[in-house]
Design brief:
Layout lengths: L3 E5 L3 H12 L3 E6 L10 E4 L1 H9 L3 H7 L1 E3 L2 E4 L5 E4 L2 H8 L3 E5 H10 L6 E3 L1 E8 L6 E7 L10 E5 L1 E4 L6 H6 L7 E11 L10 E5 L3 E7 L5 E8 L9 H8 L7 H6 L7 E7 L8 E2 L2 E3 L2 H4 L8 H16 L5 H32 L8 H11 L4 H10 L13
């Protein structure tokens, strides 16, 4: 038998890690506490680094086919005037791929389809992951899950590696790093949905900045669209009818914002507070447990890099672990992963936080028009260069990834 990894969490990062590890020779089990994977999250934009990571995992072509390239759009004011235009063609020339918009449910489906049959187990709540004495193995403890389809009755299992991809509220991270303050509220809350029907949209992607508010949309290949509304708000604020609240809040913003809201069913609206790991972790590795994605570096969505960084994590982890044949090999590979990924994700998270403060979160009545004026005066290539700074990433070439 080969080396075995247990991946905790069947989100984008966990599924990608499992695909990568299987392609580089590992046996993998993915467990998720949900009995039924709902694939919530509406839609997602994937920059070139995320698409390149998916290429390395063998699913990039399928994602491109299912998604829609973002060539047109940009940033606007509530009245509709342009602050900055998107040049998707320039990005594609520079990076080999435009930004791609795709429903999250479709991305999850494509990643699951790339796994070997029997890899995924749902209804498994992992409560603890520890490195066994000697350091060469890890133990996963799990408990019974509630609800239809629950698969676990409680117990434990051993593996050569545990990948903690259990999200921003990671139980495993809390247990491994009890002194870390954990996630904090960013000061923003986000409501989002996918329209119930296609719309005649003139752009592929837009965001609009008001005072302490952002509204954006991503057009999908089938004509529907994902929209999101981000507002400055304390954590925990919820509304009995969130769609009605948004229709009032954005009633006088430019088209197609009212049309997007009108094309949405009230029950389709998702509402989540925006959290982040504002304090970087001291390490992404503890013995034979490695953290990945939001469990390691949850960031605000202002650069659209959260999922892309998780995909990068998955590819780098699999590349470093390819061919590891003994305990020393695995430990060295994990140390390299930490050394590569922690500095990059820390920098991207800091840049996303700053982008939010200067963008959606900015609310001072004098600061907002000043920002808008500076954006209009900025050279046309500045936005492209800003995206290139984070999206210009190349996957490591390994035997498992060769030819993709």
């Amino acid at each position: 038998m080969g080396l075995h990894a247990v991946v905790v969490g069947a989100g984008i990062g966990g599924l990608a890690a499992a695909v990568g590890l299987q392609r580089t020779g590992w046996e993998v089990t993915v467990v998720d506490r949900a009995s039924v994977l709902a694939d919530e999250g509406a839609g997602i934009s994937l920059a070139a680094n995320g698409i390149r990571a998916l290429d390395a995992l063998g699913v990039g072509a399928a994602v491109r086919a299912a998604g829609r390239g973002q060539y047109t759009g940009g940033t606007r004011t509530p009245r509709g005037s342009w602050l900055a235009r998107m040049d998707g063609a320039a990005l594609e020339r520079a990076l080999g791929s435009p930004i791609v918009g795709i429903p999250r449910a479709e991305l999850h489906r494509l990643l699951r389809a790339a796994l070997r049959p029997g890899t995924l187990r749902t209804g498994v709540t992992v409560t603890r992951a520890t490195t066994l004495p000697g350091g060469a193995r890890a133990r996963v403890e799990y408990e019974a899950a509630d609800g239809p389809g629950a698969a676990a009755e409680g117990g434990c299992a051993e593996a050569d590696l545990v990948v903690a991809a259990d999200g921003i509220g990671s139980r495993l991270r809390t247990a491994l790093f009890p002194a870390h303050p954990g996630p904090v509220h960013s000061g923003s809350t986000v409501l989002r949905a996918v329209t119930d029907r296609p719309l005649d949209l003139r752009t592929d992607f837009e965001i609009t900045w008001g005072r302490g508010a952002e509204f954006g949309h991503i057009a999908f290949a089938d004509g529907r669209a994902e929209w999101h509304a981000v507002l400055n708000a304390p954590a925990g604020v919820r509304h009995a009818d969130p769609l009605a609240v948004l229709r009032r809040r954005f009633a006088h913003w430019h088209a197609p914002i009212p049309e997007l809201l009108a094309a949405t069913r009230p029950e389709a609206v998702l509402h989540h507070d925006v959290g982040e790991l504002a304090t970087p972790l001291p390490s992404f590795v503890s013995g034979r447990v490695v953290l990945l994605g939001d469990a390691a570096h949850a960031m605000t969505p202002n650069l659209g890099q959260g999922a892309c960084q998780a995909l990068e994590d998955a590819v780098v982890l699999a590349a470093e672990l390819e061919g590891a044949a003994d305990g020393g090999g695995i430990d060295t590979a994990l140390a390299r992963y930490d050394g590569v990924r922690r500095p990059r994700t820390t920098a991207v998270a800091a840049a996303a936080r700053q982008a939010g403060r200067m963008g959606q979160q900015l609310s001072h009545p004098l600061a907002v028009p000043l920002r808008d004026a500076l954006m209009r005066l900025a050279p046309s290539g500045l936005a492209v260069r800003a995206i290139l700074r984070h999206a210009a990433w190349t996957p490591p070439l390994t035997r498992g990834f060769a030819g993709e």
